[in-house]
Amino acid sequence: MQLAVRDRMQLSVSQLFSLNEFATKPYFMPHLRKHIIESNSTIDAQTVVEKVFRPINLDLHQPSDTFDLKVELAIVQNMTFWRSASQSGYGVRYGCPNQYHFEIHFIEAGKFTFRANGEEIHASANSAVLLKDTKNVEVIASQGSSKIGIAVPFNRLTALLGSKHSSKAALLGNFLSQVGISVAGIEVILQIAMLLIGDIDQSHPFLEAPTGALLLRDALIMTFASFWPRREDSLAPTVALPRHLERAVDWLDQHAGEEFSIEQLARRSGASIRTLQNSFRQYLSTSPNAYIQQIRLNRVRHELLYGNESQTIEQIASRWGFSHMGYFAARYRGMFGESPSATRRERANDQ
Fold this sequence. Notes:
Layout: H1 8-14, E1 23-29, E2 32-39, H2 42-52, E3 57-59, E4 69-76, E5 79-86, E6 90-94, E7 101-109, E8 111-116, E9 119-124, E10 127-131, E11 137-141, E12 145-153, H3 154-161, H4 168-172, E13 178-180, H5 186-197, H6 212-227, H7 243-254, H8 262-269, H9 273-284, H10 288-306, H11 313-319, H12 325-336, H13 340-350
Antiparallel strand pairs: 1-2, 2-4, 3-6, 4-5, 5-12, 6-11, 7-10, 7-12, 8-9, 8-11, 10-13
Helix pairs in contact: 3-6, 5-6, 7-8, 10-13
């Protein structure tokens, strides 16, 4: 059995397996974690991918007696980059119903079929695919296939663009689902992803800087927003929010630190509770409570990075409505991929 173990975290993963077809090794830099996963077993590959990335349902889709899969994974806080390759081919299903992501896939070899958000996309080498919603995704990879994937939390896009409303429909609706890699700007996104995935035993000096990986991550998102092709009939978002929803999100933005009930919010919006809740789900892919929580968490993060340094994390969180620190810390980590204390250390490193 050949199994590389480089630290305590990896040991906990490695001890789950005693099969010689599995190997994984991590590589850690500031804000960047890397893993290599190699397996000849769908069950083992599925288990370890779930351990270091997310739950999946993996099967041998092609008519073959053998299976192989290699995944090189790089995680920058709550954003994930990976290269997957397989000679046997495979089918995979996954879903992120409570985590709002979109995905970019660059096809290097073979053929892929993507099914997500009511679309079926067939892609081959030198093309790039955008999955605008990852609540329920199916991917079928042919024999001899490889691709690079990027999972982007939707709130990272809205945060960098300064978007007022977290609406996938408004921001991604006009983006094309499939483009050529040679399109201006698309190749830059691919090059950034390849740099972050890189060779696990070698690193670009830029990535070893305290915030190097974070800067590349944000550069990738901005490049995507600026250069990913959109429908010719409109280069700007065209999906308008209903007036009652506009009133609700405007009020939430201005009164994010205040306590309120869904009944009070509905009255201020001029709509019934059910209409308001349905509008949040349809246009913003969330609920009123989850929406205000995202606003409050973003306000906390902004204060941790740029506010009064004499304020404790507990004081800042309490000011934005979080009275239970355990709950707050879990929600914060789920949204930003790091603890509040890590965000505060990030500020200290930048100074």
